[in-house]
Amino acid sequence: MRFLCLAILAMLCLSGAVISAPAIEDLSSYLPCDMPSTASLRQSEKKVFLINFSQFPAQVDNKPMAQSYYTTQWLNPDGEAKHWKPGGGVLRQVPLLPLITLHTGPDWADRSAEDEVRAVSALGIDGMVLDILVNSNHQMYHWDRINRLIRIAPNVDPNFKFIFMPEVFDDALSDTIKHFAKYPAAYHLPDGRLVVMPYMPTTKPVAWWKDWLASMKADGYDIAFFPCFQGWQNAAKDYAAISYGFTDWGPRDAVGANALLSIPTKVHQGYGVKWAAPIAPQDVRQKYATGMYWESSNTEAFRNLWMSAITGGADWIDGITWSDYGEATEIAPSTGTQYGFYDLFAYYNVWFKTGVQPKIVRDVLYYCYRIMPTDATFDPTLQTGG
Predict the structure, then answer these.
(1) What does the pLDDT profile of the chain (386 residues) look like in tens digits?
(2) DSSP secondary structure string, 218-249?
(3) How many Cβ atoms from other residues are within 10 Å of residue 258's Cβ?
(4) How far apart are CA 124 and CA 42, in angstroms?
(5) 3-state DSSP call for residue 162?
(6) What are the DSSP E strand ranges found in 62-172?
(7) How far apart are CA 113 and CA 90, in angstroms?
(8) pTM, whole model, 2 decimals?
(9) What's 230's DSSP letter?
(10) CB-CB contact of 108 with 101 (8 Å)
(11) What is the DSSP string of 174-221?
(12) CB-CB contact of 28 with 116 (8 Å)
């Protein structure tokens, strides 16, 4: 039996902590259900992707976790020139994968990227959404990391695919999308269109996007436009004519998750496009001095989001996220939440893709708790967002 703890506020990881964990292979022996093959799950018309946030890769360097940048800077309240000290540091937990296998050779970054692809592929999903924060190979470590993932993925899983989520809309956007479109792992629809999922496209007028799509098509790049909004209702009417589908950053609390049940029907009937349901485990941003969180009610918000997608008839899943430790939305196995959300994501993915609730064939215990001061008191005015 595999015991898992889900720390709702992701507060379990201490500097230098090491938690032993098994290698990620066939998940069936760990889950309450037997996993169908990834190949069979990918035959479903329902597609599932997890957003990759490149700032927090499995390995940020080739050092043991106790000496890694994760521990010395991001977990350390005094790290990064004490910029995050008022909030107690950037992060509260870190990836488990390097604690399973630490890569230290000259190709450590490639091998670590392979571990991430292997872990995501084991969930039986279709691939990742690459959050593209810059449009230049001269900016940040970010460019190298996202290029490495899409280059390395076929070594592990030839059918693992990537969708592109640009966040910067400037004159370099076309070159950025053309650059990534050349990779075999870029996700195209059966009709050949390349899926692009811009985050917050409303920062540009719809006319700007129409011109951009026309320009890309003229250059031989036919785009399936799949915008990710924050408040899709406000933009739906304007964007429906140019969109293949809609998604939204979505809620993080149990009540808001239930409210998504009717959205697929509204999107299908009202706008004639597909709906990618947002699925997030929680949202906790303790790096800020005042703190910020949405009450996820243990795993209730996560489970309600999945059930709204399954029961409501969503077409796709937009998993938020694989690796954004800064907002504690990561599904990746981690030192605080460990394998809890990871395992549950696999279970509900089977249900979503097959349309049949997986049969429970073995006992697995999932439990949740918070680490709290014994003299803590609740102040409702400090909760943000839920």
Answers:
(1) 333 333 333 333 222 333 334 455 677 788 999 999 999 999 999 999 999 999 999 999 999 999 999 999 999 999 999 999 999 999 999 999 999 999 999 999 999 999 999 999 999 999 999 999 988 665 567 899 999 999 999 999 999 999 999 999 999 999 999 999 999 999 999 999 999 999 999 999 999 999 999 999 999 999 999 999 999 999 999 999 999 999 999 999 999 999 999 999 999 999 999 999 999 999 999 888 778 889 999 999 999 999 999 999 999 999 999 999 999 999 999 999 999 999 999 999 999 999 999 999 999 998 888 777 778 676 666 554 44
(2) HTT--EEE--EESSGGGTHHHHGGG-SEEEE-
(3) 16
(4) 7
(5) strand
(6) 127-132, 161-166
(7) 23
(8) 0.91
(9) S
(10) no
(11) HHHHHHHHTSTTB-B-TTSPEEE--BSGGGS-HHHHHHHHHHHHHTT-
(12) no
Q: Assess contact for 361 and 33: CB atoms under 8 A.
A: yes
Neighbour tally for 211: CB within 10 Å: 12
Residue 39, both tokens: 């190949």
- CA-angle at 5, arms to 334 and 307, nearest 5°: 90
CA 239 to chain centre: 24
Q: Residue 299's beta-bridge partner residues?
A: none
Q: Which of 262, 275, 208, 196 shows the shortest CA–CA distance to 236? A: 275
Residues 6+ apart with CB under 8 A from 205: none
CB 35 within 8 A of CB 354: no
Residue type, 367: Y
Residue at token pair 């996993």: 35
Neighbours of 203 (CB within 10 A): 11
| H helix or E strand, kind and range, residue 87 | none
Instruction: State which amino acid sits at residue 196.
Output: V
CB atoms within 10 A of CB 313: 17
C-alpha span between 327 and 383 (Å, rounded): 15
Using CA atoms, how far apart are residues 326 and 284, in angstroms rounded to an integer? 8
Rounded CA gap, 358 and 5, in Å? 22
Contact 187, 127 (CB under 8 A): yes
